[in-house]
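Worked example 4.2. Below are the chains of a multi-component assembly; read each line carefully before continuing.
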Amino acid sequence: MATNQEEVQLLGVVGSPFVCRVQIALKLKGVEYKFLEENLANKSDLLLKYNPVHKKVPVFVHNEKPIAESLVIVEYIDQTWNNNPILPSDPYQRALARFWSKFIDDKVVGAASKSVFTVDEKEREKNVQETLEGLQFLENEIKEKKFFGGEEIGLADIAGSFVAFWIPIVQEIAGLQLFTSEKFPNLYKWSQEFINHPVVKEVLPPREPLFTFFKARYETLTASK
Amino acid sequence: MAGANVVLLDFWPSSYGMRVKIALAEKGISYDCKQEDFGAKSSLLLEMNPVHKMIPVLIHNAKPICESLNIVQYIDEAWNHKPSLLPSDPYKRSQARFWGDYIDKNVYNSIKRIWTGKGDQEECKKQFIECLKTLKDELGDKPYFGGEEFGYVDVALVPFTSWFYTVETCGKLSIDEECPKLVAWVKRCMQKESVATALPHPHRIYAFALQYKQTHGVE
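Applying the procedure described above to all two chains together yields the following structure tokens:
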């Protein structure tokens, strides 16, 4: 299917794990798009118009119709462009892929972020425990598989980009040992396969600027204690 | 398909469980319903949902599916005869999923905070009403969130309405006054047998809520 760059737009910011999910999906499908970079401190009228409910990125726009929420967008992309399927065709396997994607969002992303970017010690410790529990479930699920999706990356792998790329960065900044090869050998192996996947590698943002950005945020937070 | 192949682990006041019951009824699927006791979760529940240890869990041919909206999507795909719960058009499907996600993130928590009396009550009530108004705006003049046909978003939201009486009584507010269009939508949904059968009477839910508060020392 031929796509004009103008027909497909993605409102986002460089460095957002949620925006990255959509970019991985688009790259997998070979879809060209226009990236509209947002300034989250000064949100554009377009963003507010396209996502009035949450006012967040990513927002995907196809033929002027907007879609928000990264996993909703990824499923839409999968249904609209049929090459390189992201979800399996079997209903039970699809249910599993969706379950693990939601698990990552509900139980790992928030807890991992709060393990780093929380000042209250008790709150931080609680989130560290939750993150470790979440990672253990993922460790048990990935087992010996190359990807959560099997031989090729699928929805849960794409959702897990936060675990593979962002957790290592933020834990280094905070001096935490959350996600290590010692604690989670199978998941660690998966993360290396994932970040080195030819499509993913091209889409992941450069590590250094991201590290600098999070470090600054961490230092501001801890300095204000 | 034989009823024994489809088992639902449920807890009768759970809005999440009701979603699955409605979906199963819409598709005309017979199933075995097992009630869970939250004080003592069954070994079957712990085996079938080791991650969250929560209901609802649908067990189809011995394979478990967890998370209510995940189950509803599974039901729609595994039994793909009519009526379809999700639209076939990819954009409309994405919008249905978006609103299902919105309901998941906002409705349960705001309802719970009001009937348990936890948190700043004026703030909780304000948030709850805002959430209802956002949903009312999305409904617009359509008979259902799905349009002409009852669908996924209706299934996602309508079970929480069995808790409206409890919220109104505990929170001293009137949903009819705040959102009459939504109340009209509830009445329309309740005319469907799948919904009327799945939703307990609001007074039963209220009695459950009062007992829960007593048992858990919440007041």
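Take a moment to check your reading of the output against the notes. Chain B touches chain A at residues 51, 60, 63, 65-67, 70-71, 73-74, 77-78, 90-91, 93-95, 97-98, 101-102, 134 (CB under 8 Å). The CA atoms of residues 14 and 55 of chain B lie 8 Å apart.
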